[in-house]
Amino acid sequence: MDNKNIDDAAFQEELEELVLRSFGEGKDVEGVWDLRYAPEEIPDWTVTIDRKDTF
Description:
Blueprint: H1 3-24, E1 31-35, E2 45-49
Antiparallel strand pairs: 1-2
């Protein structure tokens, strides 16, 4: 496994922990989140979280 895959796996794990913890606390995590930062050197991001129910 190269470093990019390790970094991707770590990022996904952290994101999953955040979503699951927030959901477990009763927070509404589904939606579109706009993240804006200053200074301009830091990029802005749009994050979309959609719930997928599979049965």
